[in-house]
Design goal:
The complex is a heterodimer of chains A (294) and B (343). Chain A contains 13 helices and no strands. Chain B is of the alpha+beta class and 343 residues long. The chains are: A mainly alpha (294), B alpha+beta (343).
């Protein structure tokens, strides 16, 4: 009997690499971070002494941390609201049949497929204070005169810019997930609503939206967690500036722990939102399960 | 109440012809059945009347008004789908109330109307359930109640019984007909099931390949089929059709009886029938076999009611007769019905 026929060994063999991957690359660093956050370790190494919750209490009171926490919430929530609205509209539009639909679907998916660092570097040029194509366009359209906006150099504008890039990056995935949800609604249901007299808004808010709610919540959950934890866009565009106005917890954790060398405090900052995210994830999955239809 | 009329309605999907010129006119309050095999265009025709599909050519009229350019919600129709298409996230009450809300019926009246519609179908006790908590028969009633509640001018039903088991289907058929008679709303009913069509329809339109082959009462469709397709499609077992050089001869299995057992004393034609197989079905006996003589070696089926007790054995030849008035003749090339002629 070969190993292929052995139910006792084949299963563990096939799932083994995945388990190994999760344990080594996610599990071990995660538990290391957990311990770091209650230790006094630094990138210089050496000490691993237990200090209790001192890192947390030290960091929570600092203005830098509080700004980052506020920025994180603004960045994550605002970007998700925009993504939800836009992805719903896009998915509804893409569900219809029209010429060139495949091509447009392909283009919409591009930001998700393209490497994120290349994408954000392109955005860096789009937002450049001197060469900004946005400013050029606005000037050509006669909407502004002179120098134009410092997209990444003015506090509110910088936050708006990183949110815009994050939306650009996340929109494709959210749209594809919602398209999947939309196509799972039988055509009969739409026909019944049409015969029953529902106009566009009633049809959308009372039939379509409730039916894609479970899958939308899953999309929102992924989006939120991604927005709370990702630093690529902020790292490439603003480095948290100007004056920390785009500094989020994830980037602050990086600058404190890796660049600044205080691994323990960095870990504490990174883990600060972990209980909240866990609760959000649990809550969303519960709602998604409860509203699941059919 | 209203009539539905189609004038030269066609529907092409690219090169595929789904409906190829249909002219129909329902009577007011009539129960009209569209009957045909799958792919004959009956559902496409219904969906055009409902407004889900746009005809490639032709006119659709509801209550004498051309509705080609009206959206479904403006056509004063209600539809029951094969899948019932209940809104899965709403309770039965909300499902039935949905068309009323969509039509901005006064809020205070809605509960009253929902309860009225629910009581008509005996589902008053289910109003707080979700569709997934209902049986197939209950779902079907909810779908009917939802269709009825806003008192449409026309009912469109797309195979609403085909998802029910056989026993339930028979009783649902009965209820459906009683209910339609009581409210007297013009109804168009699509089915591929000839038993449903015969049992329910005031008139039946038999469709094939996008055209209506015959429209008439169940009696006309059964006894006076317009062509060989209708003759074969309606009736179980189907009409016996015998090839002849000059015509096609048809007669129903139940009219093909052993000599001397015909009830009436009209003129009869006699055939020599070699029985190859006997099927005993309780109420009937089905005899399969081949003819001798002029229609040599052509297959025929005879259906003998249990009241005909003549002993029949397989692999034996008997003389069977058909009353001459029951013989139907069809043209060999057009397959259309032609006048009676001597054998």
């Amino acid at each position: 009997m070969s190993i292929i026929d052995s139910t006792r060994w084949l299963g563990p063999l096939l799932i083994g690499p995945a388990v190994l991957y999760i344990v080594l690359l996610i599990g071990v660093p995660f538990f290391m971070a957990l311990y770091y956050s209650v230790s006094n370790t630094t990138t210089g190494g050496g000490t691993l002494g237990f200090v209790g919750l001192r890192n947390f209490t030290n960091v929570v009171g600092t203005p830098r941390f509080q700004t980052a926490l506020k920025n994180t919430l603004i960045f994550a929530l605002l970007s998700q609201v925009v993504i939800l609205v836009l992805s719903n509209a896009l998915a509804l539009a893409l569900q219809r049949d029209f010429r060139g639909k495949r091509l447009i679907r392909f283009f919409i998916l591009l930001p998700w497929v393209a490497p994120i660092s290349i994408g954000t570097i392109a955005w860096l040029w789009i937002f450049d204070s001197t060469y900004s194509v946005l400013n050029w366009t606005l000037r050509m359209a006669g909407l502004i005169q002179g120098q134009g906006f410092m997209w990444l150099g003015v506090p509110h504008l910088a936050m708006g810019s990183v949110i815009a890039v994050h939306v650009w990056r996340q929109l494709p995935l959210a749209t594809v997930i919602l398209l999947g949800g939309l196509s799972s609604i039988p055509q009969d249901i739409h026909d019944a609503a049409a015969v029953d007299g529902a106009g566009f808004w009633r049809h959308y808010f009372q039939i379509t939206l409730p039916l894609i709610l479970p899958i939308s919540l899953v999309a929102l959950l992924f989006g939120l967690i991604f927005a709370f934890t990702d630093i690529v866009i902020i790292y490439n565009l603003t480095r948290g500036g100007p004056y920390d106005t785009t500094q989020v917890l994830a980037s602050l954790a990086f600058y404190t722990g890796i660049a600044g060398g205080d691994l323990a405090e960095g870990a504490a900052i990174a883990l600060f939102l972990f209980p909240l995210l866990l609760a959000v994830a649990y809550g969303f999955l519960r709602i998604a399960h409860r509203t699941e239809v059919t | 109440m209203a009539t539905v009329e189609t004038r030269g309605v066609r529907k092409y999907y690219g090169d595929v012809v789904a409906v190829n010129g249909v002219d129909l006119l329902t009577r007011d309050g009539e129960f009209l059945v569209l009957l045909g095999p799958s792919g004959c265009g009956k559902t496409t025709l219904l969906r055009m009347i409902a407004g889900f599909e746009t005809p490639t050519a032709g006119e659709l009229l509801i209550a004498g008004e051309v509705v080609n350019d009206l959206p479904p919600r403006a056509r004063k129709i209600a539809m029951v789908f094969q899948s019932y298409a209940l809104y899965p996230h709403m309770t039965v009450f909300k499902n039935i109330a949905f068309p009323l809300k969509a039509q901005k019926v006064e809020k205070a009246i809605i509960p009253q109307k929902v309860e009225w519609a629910a009581s008509l179908f005996g589902i008053g006790h289910l109003l707080h359930r979700k569709p997934r908590e209902l049986s197939g028969g209950e779902r079907q009633r909810v779908a009917l109640a939802r269709a009825l509640v806003r008192e449409p001018a026309v009912f469109l039903l797309d195979e609403p019984l085909s998802n029910l088991d056989a026993q339930l289907r028979a009783s649902a058929r009965d209820e459906l007909q009683q209910f339609q008679r009581r409210i007297g709303t013009t109804t168009i009913y699509v089915t591929h099931d000839q038993v449903e069509a015969m049992g329910l329809g005031d008139r039946i339109a038999v469709m094939r390949a996008g055209t209506v082959r015959q429209i008439g009462t169940p009696q006309e469709i059964y006894h006076e089929p317009a062509d060989t397709f209708v003759a074969r499609f309606v009736g179980s077992p189907p009409m016996n059709l015998l090839q002849h050089q000059k015509y096609i001869l048809g007669f129903r299995p139940e009219h093909f009886l052993p000599q001397g057992t015909q009830n009436e004393k009209g003129k009869v034609s006699t055939f020599s029938f070699r029985v190859t197989r006997v099927e005993y079905l309780g109420a009937d006996r089905l005899l399969y076999g081949l003819l001798n003589g002029a229609f040599s070696d052509q297959k025929v089926i005879a259906r003998l009611p249990s009241t005909v007790t003549v002993d029949i054995k397989a692999e034996t030849t008997y003389d069977f007769t058909v009353e001459e008035k029951e013989l139907k003749f069809f043209d060999t090339t057009t397959e259309l019905r032609i006048s009676t002629r001597p054998l």
